[in-house]
């Protein structure tokens, strides 16, 4: 895990092809190409793949606001889906904090496809937890 504008990537995010465009405590922008393996049975972007992008951008925004010695986890998310994205498109996710406090960040995330049309809007709450560096990876509640 790193601090500042460099957020540790999970293997899962790498697997999905998610990339960071920009990140600071006030705004995070990430994008993901829509690949064949991201498609649902209807041949368009699977909602779970989209939510993985949303979780990455909101979590990174929260991490950029984390107190020293802490990390963050998703506490709650509510998403409205508006339209679909086809294989070959690129989805962009933009997160902004509606609240950045001592223990939580509430992020609003909007996703758009290549033509600029909105795919979804999400409200997500991230909780700060103390991280003691336990080699098992188990966080401690603080």
Describe this structure in words.
By secondary structure, the chain is α+β, with helices and mostly antiparallel strands. Helices cover 17% and strands 41% of the residues. It contains two helices and six strands, in the order αββαββββ. It has a six-stranded antiparallel beta sheet with strand order 1-2-4-5-6-3. β4 (90-100) and β5 form a beta hairpin. The longest helix is centred in the middle third of the chain and has 18 residues, at 47-64. The chain is globular. The relative contact order is 0.20. Residues 1-6 have low confidence and may be disordered.
In summary, what is this structure?
It is built from two helices and six strands, in the order H-E-E-H-E-E-E-E.
Global geometry: globular
Assembly annotation: single chain
End-to-end separation in angstroms reads 18 Å
Helix content range of the residues, please? Answer: 10-25%
Radius of gyration: 15 Å
Summarize the helix and strand pattern as letters. Answer: HEEHEEEE
Tally of strands: 6
Features:
six-stranded antiparallel beta sheet
Fold blueprint:
Layout: H1 11-16, E1 19-24, E2 27-33, H2 47-64, E3 70-81, E4 90-100, E5 104-112, E6 118-130
Antiparallel strand pairs: 1-2, 2-4, 3-6, 4-5, 5-6
């Amino acid at each position: 895990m790193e601090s500042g504008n460099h957020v540790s990537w999970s293997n899962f995010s790498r697997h999905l092809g998610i990339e960071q465009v920009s990140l600071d405590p006030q705004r995070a922008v990430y994008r993901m190409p829509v690949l064949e393996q991201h498609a649902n049975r209807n041949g368009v972007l699977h909602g779970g793949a989209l939510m993985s992008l949303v979780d990455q951008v909101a979590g990174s925004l929260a991490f950029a606001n984390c107190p020293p010695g802490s990390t963050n986890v998703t506490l709650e998310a509510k998403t409205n889906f508006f339209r679909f994205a086809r294989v070959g498109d690129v989805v962009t996710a933009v997160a902004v904090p509606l609240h950045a406090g001592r223990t939580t960040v509430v992020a609003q995330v909007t996703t758009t496809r290549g033509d600029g049309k909105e795919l979804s809007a999400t409200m997500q709450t991230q909780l700060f937890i103390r991280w003691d560096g336990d080699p098992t990876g188990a966080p401690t509640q603080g």
